[in-house]
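Lab meeting, item 3. Inverse folding demo.
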C-alpha cells in the first residue's frame, strides 16, 4: 500500500465562518480606536454620545441601502432612492402631524412606495433606462414635495420649507446595560471604557424605529436567501431568461422588488422626520443620504450584513464630525494610519508584497497629513462622510460582485 505524500505547498488553515470574521474585524476596529483615544486624547471617538448620534444618523442610510438591495437583487438599479426618501419625508410629516408617529411610518412607506411604483412602471413595463428614470424620480420628488408643502403646510406654519412639529416616539433604554455601560465609561479605563462607551450608545435612548430598522437587516437576509420568494426574486436579477423558463413571472417579481425598495426608502425618510432632534419635515433634509445608502449597499457587496457595516461607518463619521468637529476628524487620520499598518501586516502574512507596499505607502501619506496639521477645518470636516464613501468604494471595488443583469433591459420571451 503506497504511502500518502505530505503536501508540498503551504498549509492553509480552515477558513473562519462569516460571523467570526465579522466579529474579528469589529474587535480589531475597536482596539484601533482605543489606541487612538489613548494616544490622542480624543475621547469623543468612543463616547456613548458619538455612538448614539451614529445610530440615529446611520438609520436613514441603512433603510435606503436596504431599499437599493431589494431593487438591485431583482435586477433594477434604483438611483431614485433619494427621490423616494424625499417623498417619504413629506408623507411621514403629513401623516405624523395628523395621527402620530406610527402613522408617520406608514405615510413614509406609502409615499416612498409610490415613487417605487413609478420607477417600476418606467423601467420594467416600458424599459426606460434605469439611471434616467431614477434621476427623473429624484427631480420629481423634489418638485412634488415642494408643491405639497406649500399647499398643506403653509396655512399652518407660514413657511413652505417646513412642516409643523410632529409627535415623536417615546425613547427607552435597555435596563441594566445602559447604567452599567455609563459607569464603566466614566472610569476611563483603556479599552474597557471605550467598549462601554460604544455599547452604551447602542442601548441608550432608543426608539421603536431604531429597533425596526436593525431588525430589517436579518429579516431581509432571511427573506432573500432562505425563502422561495427570495430565490425567485434574486433569480430575476441574475438570469431572468432562465427564471422565466422555469415558470417565474419575472415582471411580477421585479415589481415586488422595486415597490419594497421604494417603501424602505420612504421609511428612511420617515426616520429623518422622526429623529428626536428634528421631528418634522424640512426641505432638503435628506442631504444626499439616498445616494450614500446606495454607496453603502455597494460597499456591502449587495449583502445585508455588509450594508449594515457600511451604514455604520458612514453614520459614525457623520456623528463624530457633528459632535466633535475638526479635531476629532483629525484624530481619525491617526486611526486610518493604524488601519493601513494592520492591512499591510495582513498582506505581508499572505506574502502579497504589492498590496502590502500600497497599504503601507497609504499609511505613510495619511500620517504625514496628520502630522502636518493640528485640526481639520470645519468646512472640510462636514464632508468627511462623503470622502469616506469615495475612499471605501475605491478600495472595495475589486471585491464587488453585483447581480449579473442589474440595470439591463428585460423583455418577456427573450429566451425564445
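The presenter then showed the designed sequence:
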Amino acid at each position: 500500500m503506497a504511502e500518502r505524500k505530505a503536501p508540498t505547498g503551504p498549509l492553509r488553515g480552515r477558513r473562519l465562518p462569516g460571523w467570526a470574521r465579522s466579529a474579528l474585524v469589529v474587535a480589531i476596529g475597536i482596539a484601533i480606536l482605543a489606541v487612538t483615544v489613548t494616544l490622542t486624547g480624543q475621547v469623543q471617538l468612543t463616547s456613548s454620545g458619538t455612538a448614539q448620534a451614529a445610530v440615529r444618523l446611520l438609520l436613514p442610510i441603512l433603510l435606503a441601502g436596504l431599499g437599493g438591495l431589494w431593487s438591485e437583487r431583482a435586477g433594477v438599479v434604483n438611483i431614485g432612492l433619494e427621490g423616494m426618501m424625499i417623498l417619504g419625508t413629506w408623507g411621514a410629516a403629513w401623516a405624523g402631524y395628523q395621527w402620530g408617529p406610527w402613522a408617520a411610518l406608514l405615510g413614509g412607506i406609502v409615499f416612498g412606495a409610490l415613487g417605487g411604483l413609478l420607477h417600476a412602471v418606467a423601467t420594467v413595463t416600458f424599459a426606460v433606462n434605469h439611471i434616467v428614470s431614477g434621476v427623473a424620480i429624484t427631480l420629481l420628488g423634489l418638485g412634488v414635495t415642494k408643491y405639497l408643502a406649500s399647499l398643506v403646510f403653509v396655512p399652518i406654519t407660514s413657511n413652505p420649507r417646513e412642516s409643523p412639529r410632529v409627535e415623536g416616539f417615546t425613547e427607552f433604554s435597555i435596563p441594566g446595560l445602559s447604567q452599567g455601560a455609563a459607569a464603566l465609561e466614566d472610569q476611563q479605563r483603556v479599552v474597557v471604557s471605550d467598549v462601554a462607551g460604544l455599547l452604551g450608545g447602542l442601548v441608550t435612548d432608543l426608539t421603536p424605529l431604531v429597533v425596526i430598522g436593525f431588525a430589517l437587516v436579518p429579516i431581509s437576509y432571511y427573506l432573500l436567501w432562505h425563502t422561495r420568494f427570495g430565490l425567485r426574486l434574486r433569480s430575476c436579477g441574475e438570469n431572468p431568461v432562465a427564471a422565466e423558463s422555469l415558470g417565474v413571472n419575472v415582471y411580477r417579481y421585479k415589481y415586488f422588488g422595486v415597490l419594497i425598495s421604494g417603501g424602505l426608502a420612504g421609511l428612511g425618510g420617515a426616520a429623518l422626520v422622526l429623529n428626536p432632534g428634528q421631528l418634522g419635515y424640512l426641505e432638503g433634509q435628506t442631504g444626499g443620504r439616498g445616494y450614500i445608502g446606495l454607496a453603502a449597499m455597494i460597499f456591502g457587496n449587495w449583502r445585508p450584513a455588509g450594508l449594515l457595516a457600511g451604514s455604520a461607518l458612514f453614520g459614525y463619521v457623520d456623528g463624530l464630525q457633528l459632535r466633535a468637529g475638526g479635531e476629532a476628524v483629525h484624530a481619525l487620520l491617526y486611526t486610518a494610519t493604524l488601519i493601513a499598518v494592520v492591512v499591510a501586516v495582513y498582506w505581508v502574512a499572505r506574502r502579497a508584497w504589492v498590496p502590502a507596499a500600497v497599504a503601507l505607502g497609504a499609511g505613510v501619506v495619511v500620517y504625514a497629513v496628520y502630522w502636518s496639521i493640528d485640526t481639520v477645518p470645519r468646512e472640510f470636516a462636514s464632508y468627511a462622510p462623503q470622502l469616506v464613501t469615495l475612499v471605501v468604494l475605491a478600495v472595495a471595488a475589486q471585491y464587488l460582485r453585483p447581480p449579473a443583469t442589474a440595470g439591463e433591459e428585460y423583455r418577456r420571451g427573450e429566451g425564445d
